[in-house]
Structure formats: structure tokens, C-alpha cells
Write a structure and sequence with these properties.
The complex is a heterodimer. Chain A has helices at residues 13-21, 70-82, 213-225, 322-325, 328-377, 380-395, 399-419, 427-442, 470-480, 513-519, 522-536; strands at 35-39, 42-44, 51-55, 60-64, 91-93, 97-103, 119-125, 128-135, 145-147, 162-164, 168-169, 175-182, 188-196, 204-210, 239-243, 246-252, 261-264, 271-272, 285-288, 298-305, 313-320, 425-426, 448-453, 463-464, 489-497, 500-507, 543-550, 554-561. Chain A is an alpha+beta fold. In chain B, α2 runs parallel beside α3 (64-71) and α4 (86-94) runs antiparallel to α6. Classes of the chains: A alpha+beta, B alpha/beta.
């Protein structure tokens, strides 16, 4: 059978580069495939058969029905440059079934044609004998294939006879070793180890371009001007990004003509890479847009050799919004700006919060004080003592007095409840409240009281904190007066001194100041309330309290309301 | 003239107490019966004519208002007798209905009965306002208020009140139509009643409707100029309340 060597040089730069790199071994394409499958006794024009033609220093041979992946090819290229003999190199293949063909003649590269009658062949698969020693010349051509004599250039070259091995079947990582030796001397002539390797389609490039109509011209121009073998991003790793408003172009750098690459985002529906020799990406490319990878998400793109699930290669593609696309400087600036804004907002919020907190605190204290006014100031003593007194009036068969007393207690309690809700009542209302209180206390303890109000004051018009005086009165009654004291008396005087309102409570009893401060919270309650009023009122309207014991006179508690009367 | 009265209260001891007080202090009244539930009271009131109804507000699961809602236009006058009930009391005050607080004070009882016996006006409008107020008061949706002057009870839209001025235990209401109404109740009573409707006590003597304020002037110690040109002084102790006036 005549064989014509074909070194069909592709117009593609890439192919030229590859072919040059592949001087040994040579790799051939053909317009009419040099190897054709026989179907029903006729060569099939449309059936693809994978093959390699190797031209070692010693003899020409080919692998028929097996293929390389492009990346393995480049590995093989490196190998070929380092080691011309191939003696110790493993030749990778991707296919499970192939056979090896030996040719008798090759004139492209001048090498001696071996005498196949004097050479024996042996094949081991995974170190186990597959084909025992046999003279190469005795191997018959495989009639399932037709080897064509194809014309290349003006020379009409022939390859002479062909000797083919039986089909070698390999699983992944299985290795077949073909050993050739001289029949007579048994000296090893050549060893060809072929290993089936799991190859994944990883020789890809990636390019991003803006889609907008305004820029499409520039982009296309740039795209077209771009050297095909120098795309934006070569040797794509496992991670890619797709920026918002851009298109991603993922292309195959190199691919054997019989290999098909398909891709999928869900591993269910697989689509082939679009390819055209006229396009800048002759081996196929796909366009990735926001429909495939929305901004803010990460999608996995699966790429594999058609219908070979084992070869699936995963690429994570991250869709990112413009902010993240910007340079580190911009990112840094944004962070600074964000921090700055955050700081301002933080301080504003903090200030407001502090203000609110203060208001709340005051409100809380206010409520607390009002509650104490009800529950603490008018302590249970008052209620139980009142009930006790009522019991006394009933038992003394004086229903009228009992009725009056009950009404007084009830109306006093009600007034306290109603009026202590307010910030201010009138001075007159306050004095009425305190007088009611004194009258109730008089039911139980013997003392007299006097209330003197400056004639120049309009008691109905002057604001006064409700129940302010009551703890002072209570202290006098409880602590200053005892059984032995003659004519116990409490005097309340209200005077206008310049613009100030001065209220004095004087008892003629024992000194109670020290005891009272330690013992009851009546006075501390007054102080708390005065502090609250100080916060609410303008600065020029302070209220002060002063307690002084004077021999002969007794305890004088003075309240000075500065500038109270204008 | 002998007046008939009927007492409704869920506590028998309260009925007994009030009966004793009426027997002792109100010889003109004749108690024709009592009831501890609304249902019981309705049965009697449908059969007999009653001049005065002493009615408790809170009774177990029911209220005195439930009773009034079912009697339709009442032929009797009402005096509420209650211990303490915020919304109830507010509604009663809004409608200027008479009420006594427990424990009942004899003098107040006598005064209330006397007032009723002199009354010529029908309770109809008052009861309507009362029931309305009881429902609306919680949401501060009340539209009108009853203001009793010397001769009769006047029903005034709250929005028509410009301000109120205290005059000892009397209160003068200034209305949008330049009319005034003198009410024999202290201003403090109306302060708590009208506060939820935007009224602010800016002075011991003045309660102002913030919706009727035109401006705040700083001269003369600070005053509010009202829509009827009245100037209301703002006391320095109460300046912080100005923020409630938009």
C-alpha cells in the first residue's frame, strides 16, 4: 500500500508554530484524510479517524485511532525538543482503543528505512504480555482502515508497506509498552511506552469586552486587531471574573480537529463550542454574559470533551458589580469615604442617642419621682394610720366625724394623685393640699399650724411644684414633736423678696435634720425633684432648699425660688 | 316634691352605703329599688318611672355605659357614682354629666341632688355625647364638649375653643365666634381633659388651643398671639411647653 506523507501546513499561525515545534514527531492534517475507515468495503469520507504520524530518528510510525489533547501535545513538544530519541519518554494518548502502524518508507525526513524482517515486536500492557515476540514484517495491514497516498507539494512520495499491530485497549492510566528488537542480536532497537491519560480541556483563553453600542466599534476593532495567539488572558485557571456590563469570551487555544469541546452551566444540557476557521477563534469560543453569570453570583462552568464525562473541567466564574472592578485605589478611597460617612453618622446618632437617653432618663426619673410621690412619700404609714384613725372615730360612736374623716382622706388622696401628675400646680392649690394634709395629721397628733401668705402675692397665679412641702411637714410632725413638747406648732410662710419667692417651714420642735437625712427618703426625694426641675427650667430660675436648726426657734426649712415672680 | 331614685352597683355594700346616705341626707328622694347587674336594672327601668339613676361605672364585666346604651333616650337624670376610672371619668366630664366619687361625701351628694332637681334641660344630648366620648376618648377622637354655664349646658366643638382663662374656681372659654362661656369648674379639670387635643397650659391662668395660636412674641416676657387677637402670657416656668405648640 502506498502512503503519501502529508504535511499540510495550516494558514493559522498557531498551527505553524505547533507544527514547527513538532518537527519530531510530525503531526499531519490532510484535506483528504490519510487514514480512512472502511465501511462496507468502501472508504468512508465522512468518518473521522484519529491518527498520528511519528517520525523518529529510526523509522516512521503512527498511532491510528488514538488522539492527543492539545495540552498533551504541547507537553510532547517539550519532550521532543529535549530528547530526540523518545526512548524513555511516555507518549500520552487519550483514547482507549488504537493500534500502531509501522511504515517502510519515509522521504520527508531522511532516515534509514528499517528492515522490518530483522525486527521483532512485543507489546506489554501494564507489564503483562499482550503480544508475544513477532517479526514486524509479519504484521498485516488492518483492513478496517485505508491509508491513502496523499499528495503533498510536487513530490509524489510513497510510504511503502504498512504493518499494523492488533488493537490495544487501555483504561485510564494503563500503559502499553511496545518493544522493538533485532531478531538476531536481541538488542533493543526502540521502546515506545504509550500511556492513556485523563485529559481535561484546560488550554483556554479569556477576554472581556464592553457590550455598549458606543464602545462596540472600538472593542471589535481591538478584538480584530488582537493577535489570535495573544488573547487578553491566556492559560485560563479555574477562576474567572465577569464584570457587569461586559461580555466574556472564552476560547479554546488549540484543539485537534476531531475533538469536540462542549460546555454546560448545569451539567445537564451540554452545548458545543462554536467554531469557524474564519473567526479569530478558529478552535471555538463561547460568549458569557450576565444571563449566565449575574453580578454578585458565582457560577460554575463545566467544560469537557464531547460525551466524555470523565474529562469535565470546572471553571468558577464570578459576576461582579462595578465597585469591585475598580482599582485598589478606588476601593481604598471608597472605604475611606464610607468610614468617614459612617463616623459622621455614628457621631450624629450617638449625639441624638445621648440626647434621647438623657430625655428618657429624665422622663424615667420623673415618673419614678412621681411614683415615689404616691407610694413613698405618702408612705403606707399614712394610709394605715388614716385607717386606724377612721376605726377610732367609728368605734367612738361618732359617725359624722367618721364620715368627714373618710371624705377628707379620700379627697386628699385623690388630689395628690391628680395633681402630682402635673409639673406645676398653683401656689394656692399647693397650700390647700398641704393644709388638707396637716388637718389629717391633726386627727392623730396634737399640734397647731399657721399659714401666712404675703399679701402682694397672687397665690392662684404662681406656679408651684405639687406636694413639695409635704415631706418637710411630715418630718416635723414625726421627728420634731413629742409628747413632752408644749404647744407644738408648724408655721408656713410664703413671701416675695424682690423677685424671689421664699417659702419657709418652721417647726418649734427638736432638731430633726440629722436624723431625717439618714433615716427617710423624704428629703432626698425633694432633692431629686429639684434636680429635675433644674433641668427643665431656664437657668435663671433655680430652686434651692436649705435646712437649719436654730436654738429657741427650731428647724427652719427654706425654699428659695429665684426670679420666680417677675 | 318627692323624686324617685334607683341605684345600680355591682357591690351590695356600696348600694347599702349610698342608701344610708340618701336616707339620712336627702329626704326628698325615695329609693324605689336597686340592681347589681345591667340586665336586672333594665327590667326595672322598663316597668317603672325613675327620676334619678345612681349608676356605677365599672361593674364586673359590664359598665354603666352599657346600660345607657340600651335604654335609648332616658327619661331619668343620671348621677354616676364611681371610685376611679380614667376613661369613664373623662367621658363623664366631657358630657358634663353629674358624678359622685366614692367614698361619697354627704355635702357633694346633697349638692348633686339639688342641682338635678333644678334641672330643666333634657339629658338626651348629654347622654349621646357621653356614650360617644366613652368610645372616642381613648383615641382622642372626641369632637365636642359639654360646657355647663349658669343656665344651661352648651355643646361646643373642641376645635372652636381658642383658649380658657382661669378665674379662681371658674373658667372662661373663648370661642371662635367671639362668644365666651363661663363655667363653674376649675381650669385644671379642663386641662387634663383637653391636653390630648393639643391644648397647653402655658400659664397658671391660661389653657390654650395650639391650633389657634398665630405666633409667639418674645416681647413683654413672651406671649402667644391667638387667632382672636388675645395675647396669652407664657410663664417662664412653662416655656419648655412651647415646643408642644407647632
Amino acid at each position: 500500500m502506498k502512503i503519501l506523507n502529508i504535511m499540510k501546513v495550516k494558514k493559522m499561525k498557531k498551527a505553524i508554530i505547533y507544527c514547527l515545534l513538532m518537527l519530531l514527531p510530525a503531526f499531519s492534517f490532510g484535506q483528504l484524510s490519510p487514514v480512512q475507515k472502511m465501511v462496507n468495503g468502501k472508504p468512508c469520507d465522512t468518518c473521522e479517524v484519529k491518527y498520528y504520524i511519528f517520525k523518529s530518528n529510526n523509522f516512521p510510525w503512527a498511532i491510528v485511532g488514538g488522539g492527543f489533547a492539545s495540552e498533551l501535545m504541547s507537553e510532547a513538544n517539550k519532550t521532543s525538543r529535549l530528547d530526540k530519541s523518545y526512548n524513555h519518554k511516555i507518549i500520552p494518548t487519550l483514547d482507549s482503543v488504537f493500534n500502531v502502524a509501522f511504515f517502510s518508507k519515509n522521504q520527508i525526513v531522511s532516515i534509514k528505512n528499517p528492515d522490518y524482517k530483522n525486527i521483532e515486536i512485543r507489546i506489554d500492557i501494564n507489564n503483562k504480555p499482550f503480544l508475544d515476540w513477532k517479526i514486524v514484517n509479519d504484521l498485516k495491514p488492518d483492513n478496517r482502515y485505508k491509508i491513502n497516498n496523499t499528495e503533498v507539494s510536487s513530490d509524489n512520495e510513497t510510504w511503502g508497506n504498512i504493518h499494523q499491530t492488533p488493537d490495544i485497549k487501555l483504561g485510564y492510566n494503563d500503559m502499553a509498552v511496545i518493544t522493538l528488537r533485532y531478531v538476531k542480536t536481541k538488542k533493543i532497537y526502540q521502546k515506545i511506552p504509550i500511556k492513556r491519560i485523563l485529559s481535561k480541556p484546560t488550554i483556554l483563553f479569556y477576554y472581556q469586552t464592553a457590550l455598549s453600542a458606543k464602545s462596540i466599534k472600538d472593542n471589535l476593532q481591538g478584538f480584530l486587531n488582537n493577535e489570535v495567539d495573544t488573547p487578553a488572558l491566556k492559560s485560563v485557571k479555574n477562576n474567572l471574573v465577569l464584570q457587569k456590563n461586559k461580555l466574556g469570551v472564552l476560547g479554546i487555544e488549540y484543539l485537534q480537529q476531531w475533538d469536540k469541546i462542549e460546555y454546560s452551566f448545569d451539567q445537564k444540557s451540554w452545548k458545543g463550542f462554536k467554531s469557524s476557521f474564519r473567526s479569530p477563534f478558529p478552535y471555538g469560543s463561547i460568549i458569557i454574559d450576565e444571563n449566565d453569570v449575574p453580578p454578585g453570583t458565582t457560577k460554575t462552568l463545566y467544560i469537557r470533551y464531547a460525551d466524555e464525562p470523565e474529562t469535565t473541567h470546572k471553571i468558577e466564574i464570578k459576576g461582579i458589580a462595578p465597585i469591585a472592578q475598580t482599582s485598589w485605589f478606588k476601593i481604598g478611597a471608597s472605604i475611606m469615604l464610607a468610614l468617614f460617612c459612617f463616623a459622621i453618622i455614628y457621631f450624629i446618632i450617638k449625639r441624638n442617642h445621648k440626647k434621647q437617653l438623657l430625655t428618657l432618663k429624665n422622663k424615667n426619673a420623673d415618673i419614678e419621682t412621681r411614683l415615689s410621690l404616691l407610694s413613698g412619700q405618702l408612705n403606707p404609714h399614712f394610709l394605715f394610720n388614716s385607717l386606724h384613725a377612721i376605726q377610732g372615730t367609728i368605734n367612738s360612736q361618732n359617725p359624722k366625724l367618721a364620715n368627714t374623716y373618710i371624705s377628707n382622706v379620700a379627697s386628699f388622696m385623690r388630689n395628690v394623685m391628680d395633681q402630682s401628675k402635673k409639673d406645676f400646680i398653683s401656689l394656692q392649690e399647693e397650700l390647700k393640699l398641704e393644709e388638707d394634709y396637716l388637718q389629717l395629721e391633726q386627727q392623730r397628733k396634737t399640734f397647731s399650724y399657721t399659714i401666712l401668705v404675703d399679701e402682694n402675692l397672687q397665690a392662684t397665679m404662681i406656679d408651684f411644684p405639687p406636694m413639695l412641702l409635704q415631706p418637710v411637714l411630715e418630718n416635723s410632725i414625726r421627728h420634731a414633736f413629742n409628747e413632752t413638747l408644749p404647744n407644738p406648732n408648724i408655721k408656713i410662710t410664703v413671701n416675695k423678696e424682690d423677685k424671689d419667692l421664699v417659702v419657709k417651714v418652721t417647726d418649734n420642735g427638736l432638731a430633726w435634720n440629722a436624723i431625717a437625712i439618714k433615716e427617710n427618703h423624704g428629703l432626698s426625694l425633694i432633692r431629686k425633684r429639684l434636680a429635675l426641675y433644674a433641668e427643665k427650667l431656664p437657668k435663671d430660675l433655680p430652686i434651692t432648699m436649705d435646712i437649719a436648726y436654730q436654738q429657741e426657734i427650731g428647724t427652719v426649712t427654706s425654699f428659695i425660688f429665684k426670679n420666680w415672680i417677675s | 316634691m318627692q323624686l324617685s331614685c334607683f341605684i345600680v352597683d355591682d357591690e351590695p355594700i356600696a348600694i347599702e352605703t349610698l342608701s344610708l346616705l340618701i336616707g339620712r341626707f336627702c329626704p326628698s328622694l325615695k329609693i324605689i329599688g336597686n340592681a347589681v347587674t345591667v340586665k336586672q336594672a333594665l327590667t326595672t327601668l322598663q316597668q317603672q318611672t325613675v327620676d334619678i339613676l345612681f349608676l356605677d361605672i365599672r361593674m364586673q364585666q359590664e359598665t354603666g355605659f352599657d346600660l345607657l346604651a340600651q335604654t335609648g333616650t332616658p327619661s331619668f337624670h343620671i348621677i354616676f357614682v364611681t371610685a376611679h376610672d380614667d376613661y369613664g371619668i373623662q367621658a363623664i366630664k366631657f358630657s358634663a354629666t353629674d358624678y359622685l366619687l366614692k367614698p361619697v361625701n354627704a355635702e357633694e351628694l346633697i349638692a348633686a341632688v339639688h342641682k338635678i332637681s333644678q334641672k330643666k334641660q333634657s339629658d338626651k344630648e348629654q347622654v349621646e355625647l357621653l356614650l360617644q366620648s366613652y368610645v372616642l376618648q381613648k383615641q382622642h377622637q372626641q369632637k365636642r364638649i359639654a360646657l355647663p354655664d349658669q343656665t344651661e349646658i352648651k355643646f361646643v366643638p373642641i376645635d372652636d375653643i381658642i383658649c380658657c382663662k382661669a378665674d379662681n374656681t371658674y373658667t372662661t372659654f373663648y370661642l371662635v365666634n367671639d362668644k365666651t362661656i363661663l363655667v363653674s369648674k376649675p381650669i385644671s379639670e379642663y386641662e387634663s381633659l383637653l391636653e390630648p387635643y393639643g391644648f397647653v397650659r402655658v400659664h397658671q391662668s391660661w389653657l390654650t388651643n395650639s391650633a389657634q395660636v398665630i405666633s409667639y412674641k418674645k416681647e413683654d416676657g413672651g406671649y402667644l398671639l391667638m387667632s382672636n387677637k388675645i395675647k396669652i402670657p407664657v410663664s417662664r416656668q412653662r416655656k419648655h411647653l412651647l415646643k408642644r405648640i407647632q
